[in-house]
UniProtKB/TrEMBL annotation:
Membrane-spanning intervals of the chain: 412-433
Lineage: Bacteria, Pseudomonadati, Planctomycetota, Planctomycetia, Gemmatales
Entry keywords, A to Z: ATP-binding, Kinase, Membrane, Nucleotide-binding, Transferase, Transmembrane, Transmembrane helix
GO molecular function: ATP binding; protein serine/threonine kinase activity
Protein name as it appears in the record: Protein kinase
Naturally occurring in which organism (per UniProt): Telmatocola sphagniphila
Domain Protein kinase stretches: 66-374
Length: 887
């Protein structure tokens, strides 16, 4: 039995004090506290409730189904009543929009959005929504489950000290983390996690309440965003509820649909409760809110469980200051002095980091950490039990040994002293040996069982992580991170397998799972590299030797993967390809590589690997590729109709469309891609290629934007569709929208080469040379990720922009000129070390035409101080003598 997960103490929950329980109505001299989904209020006396209901004209019967009883709660947008469902014969909670908002459609939409969010979260820790509807006067209502119990805040208030029943409260905290983690898995953040919003039911259930501030991070579900300002003072309460005392009301000011929360922040309004609020939320940075924001609030809740107090002050003004400045010194001191286990203290501090990136990525990781801690406690209890049993066994054998010795002494009276000594010696030896063997076997069994449990736990976590992986995406970085996380869990698996009772079988389990991890990692890295090659092919098209460069990139991508299509006998390479789980995803890349192959041997090798299964597909593909190699447009264009009838897959049709486009037939390429899009409307790759095609067709820029937008909708978390849409918007002369998409792509990958190059070009066109220089600097922070051509292009562009920026920034002109000099010197050194004549020749020509010709003017030299002039003069001399330039 798991003694850590103790039962709920029902004596802590007053009878009838649940939300809407049948016998919880107070007398006229008192008030009762209720916890209802979406509200946390104090109910006034019966007389006032009756008066309020009569004043607001709430009918006793709704929709011919619900009989309405007393009012339970008042929120910012609605009131909550206890009701009876005559159809299903049960008590429910009914939330009705307040009459003052009847004419405001935005309020009603936000009211229903809360119900939609709760309905999407089908989880035991979220209050179920039964139904939504409207009263006769048009006001919407929400029917939901009636919860009986009390809040975690009440339970914590009743504790005499934080150490009292801590195991019980950590178990509640784990269930809260699991509920919030479920919301994160659906793209929803709560934004107001605190003890008042956590209900502990009468039967031990734990529910996370009040999703009124919840926000969906998934753009497909984003709609209204309410502006909340709470709590409000007593004199700000609406006249409708002025008869209620000690009532917390949320004042809601709606904004138009899809208005970004940055506008709300600019108005000075902040969502949430400062005592548990992350810094980014307290500062009003709504665009920085993420799953890690809820993780901070979970850390604040854990801090209160361990210390008895939340991280920040109970005084609102001071709590606001501490939250905005992330002043956690007092909280960390309380944690250090709490006497709790170090694992729990470390977890709370980890969650309370000021920087969201330093916190756990989601509530799921927090739940896993708490679960691991609980299992560790259980293991320690088990080990203590093992030690007690071993001690009892030792005592038993010690007593038995004494009895045997006494018996031998009695027999010695009747026998000789010599026989007595022999029997005592032999008996003692046997007893000691048996005792030692028994103890060793028992300890060994306990250790083996402990190692097996820990190994099973690790392998279950790894299996769960691998189950989340998918290759049906263009953004493989997140899947690669998941594989890395699984690999970290496998680090200790080998040693644990050797410690179990069945080391050979357990070692085989570990090896099999590690092989799956390695295979996933290799496949995902290869697919990510191939996707990047396909996307960057646009950049290489103006290059003279495009086919050789793309072929070289394909060969580099495959060289670290076990497939190695160019190595070994052809039949072995075929077997490796057919046995791969990603064969279908690799075929279009191999087909494109084949179409660009220059060497006959490489073409024959790749052609032998690609065999199509459909009728006439092999013959059709062979004739098509032969015509592509010969650049025979007269054959290719008529073949388009037969190509579509051969029922090739969408990925193969994309390659055929690109090939015929390269030969100058965009209309044929468009026909092929549109056919593929009709059969695969949700294909990211097809929509992306259509957008890219229309970018290069005059007058079709709006179509390019449309298909690039569709591709972005299918994969919003990848920087590549943002980048493609930005390029299409530039072609459509929508520079402001293009700039925004480039910034969105930059948030996903700050040092991406293509993103920063496009951003720099846009800034240069509009005369923002300083911003363009910042983009080039970002690229150069990771030179190891760039090809030789990309690195050289970036250095030269950065030098040119730095010189251009001196005209508008006189104060920093000397520093900018020196920075330009360093860019040029680094590229000169790189050209000299590579020993590629074409690179050196291109660099020399660029220096003459772009740099030395304009800066040799005396007016420029006069502006340099002695050190700068000396640096430039030295560099010119080095170039003139080393590269033999005479500008």
């Amino acid at each position: 039995m798991n003694i850590w997960k103790s039962k709920i103490r029902f004596d802590q929950i007053p009878a009838g004090n649940g939300a809407g329980s049948a016998n919880c109505l107070p007398n006229t001299e008192s008030s009762t506290h209720f916890e209802v989904a979406g509200a946390n209020v104090t109910r006034a006396t019966d007389t006032r409730l009756g008066n309020s209901k009569q004043k607001l004209q709430i009918p006793d019967e709704i929709d011919g189904r619900y009989n309405l009883f007393e009012e339970l709660a008042t929120g910012g947008m609605g009131r909550v009543y206890k009701a009876y469902d005559r159809v299903l014969n049960r008590n429910i909670a009914l939330k009705i929009l307040r009459s003052r908002f009847m004419a405001q459609d935005e309020i009603a939409l936000r009211f229903m959005e809360e119900a939609q969010i709760m309905a999407r979260l089908q989880h035991p820790g979220v209050v179920p929504v039964y139904e939504t509807g409207k009263l006769k006067d048009g006001r919407p209502f929400i029917a939901m489950k009636l919860i009986e119990g009390c809040t975690l805040k009440n339970l914590l208030t009743d504790r005499s000290n934080p150490k009292q029943e801590l195991a019980h409260y950590i178990n509640i905290f784990e269930q809260v983390c699991q509920t919030v983690a479920f919301g994160h898995s659906r793209g929803i953040i709560h934004r107001d996690i605190k003890p008042e919003n956590i209900m502990v039911g009468a039967f031990g259930e734990v529910l996370v309440m009040d999703w009124g501030l919840a926000k969906s991070l998934d753009p497909k579900f984003a709609s209204l965003q309410p502006s909340l300002q709470w709590p409000v003072s007593k004199n700000e309460i609406d006249d409708e509820i002025e008869d209620f005392e000690d009532t917390k009301v949320i004042k809601v000011n709606m904004v138009p649909a899809r208005m970004p929360e940055e506008n709300i922040t600019n108005a000075g309004q902040i969502l949430g409760t400062f005592q548990y609020m992350p810094p980014e939320q307290a500062r009003g940075d709504h665009d920085k809110l993420s799953f890690q924001s809820d993780v901070f609030s979970l850390g604040a809740l854990l801090c209160e469980l361990l210390t008895g107090s939340p991280p920040y002050s109970s005084v609102k003004a001071e709590a606001r200051r501490q939250a905005q400045e992330a002043d956690l010194r007092h909280a960390f001191n309380m944690l250090n002095d709490s006497g709790a286990d170090a694992d729990l203290i470390q977890l709370a501090k980890h969650c309370l980091n000021e920087n969201p990136h330093d916190r756990p990525k989601s509530a799921e990781q927090v739940a896993l950490s708490v679960g691991s801690y609980l299992r560790g406690v259980q293991e320690r209890l088990h080990n203590d039990l093992v030690r007690r049993i071993a001690a009892q066994a030792h005592d038993h054998h010690t007593r038995h040994k004494s009895q045997v010795i006494k018996q031998f002494r009695n027999n010695a009276i009747l026998t000789s002293i010599a026989l007595f000594i022999v029997f005592v010696t032999v008996g003692s030896f046997l007893l000691m040996y048996r005792n030692q063997q028994f103890h060793q076997r028992y300890v060994q069994t306990a250790q083996q069982e402990s190692a097996r449990k820990e190994l099973d736990h690790k392998l279950e976590n790894v299996t769960a992580l691998l189950g989340k992986l998918s290759t049906n995406s263009s953004d493989f970085s997140q899947s690669i991170d998941t594989v890395e996380q699984a690999s970290q869990l496998m680090l200790d698996a080998d040693s644990l397998a050797q410690q179990t009772a069945q080391p050979i079988a357990d070692k085989a389990r570990v090896d099999e799972l590690r092989s799956q991890c390695d295979s996933w990692k290799q496949n995902l890295i290869l697919l990510a590299d191939l996707e990047r090659i396909s996307f960057e092919d646009d950049e290489l098209r103006p290059v003279k030797n495009r086919s050789e460069e793309v072929g070289r990139r394909y060969q580099t991508a495959f060289q670290n993967h076990p497939l190695k299509p160019l190595d070994g006998p052809l039949e072995d390479a075929k077997a490796r390809l057919q046995g791969s789980s990603i064969e279908r995803l690799l075929r279009p890349h191999l087909l494109k590589w084949l179409s660009l192959a220059v060497e006959a041997e490489q073409r024959n090798r790749l052609s032998g690997l690609l065999k199509f299964e459909g009728p006439n597909q092999n013959q059709m593909a062979t004739e098509w590729l032969r015509a592509v190699q010969k650049k025979d447009s007269d054959t290719l264009v008529p073949m388009t109709r037969f190509l579509l009838s051969a029922k090739f897959e969408a990925a193969e049709l994309r390659v055929f469309a690109e090939q015929i486009y390269q030969l100058g037939h965009p209309e044929a390429a468009e026909k092929i891609l549109l056919s593929a899009q009709v059969n695969n409307p949700e294909s990211y790759e097809v929509n992306r290629d259509l957008g890219r095609l229309y970018r290069h067709i005059p007058g079709r820029s709006s179509d390019a934007v449309r298909f690039c937008t569709a591709a972005l909708y299918l994969h919003p978390r990848s920087p590549l569709p943002h980048l493609a849409l930005a390029s299409a918007l530039r072609e459509d002369h929508k520079d402001a929208a293009a700039l925004q998409e480039l910034k969105n792509a930059l948030k996903l990958n700050e040092t991406d080469f293509q993103t920063n190059v496009l951003l720099a070009e846009l800034d240069r066109e509009q005369g923002r040379f300083a911003q363009a220089l910042v983009a080039y600097r970002r690229i150069l922070t990771k030179p190891e990720d760039l090809s030789r051509e990309q690195l050289g292009k970036t250095r030269l562009s950065a030098a040119e922009v730095a010189i251009q920026a001196t005209a508008s920034d006189a104060a920093r002109a000397p520093a900018l000129r020196l920075e330009a000099l360093n860019f040029l010197r680094n590229q000169w050194v790189a050209c000299s070390m590579d020993r590629r004549p074409e690179d050196r020749s291109e660099f020399e020509s660029w220096l003459k035409n772009e740099i030395f010709a304009p800066v040799r003017k005396p007016s420029f030299l006069e502006k340099l101080d002695e050190k700068e002039r000396a640096d430039w003069t030295t560099f010119w001399q080095e170039v003139e003598s080393g590269l033999q330039i005479n500008p």
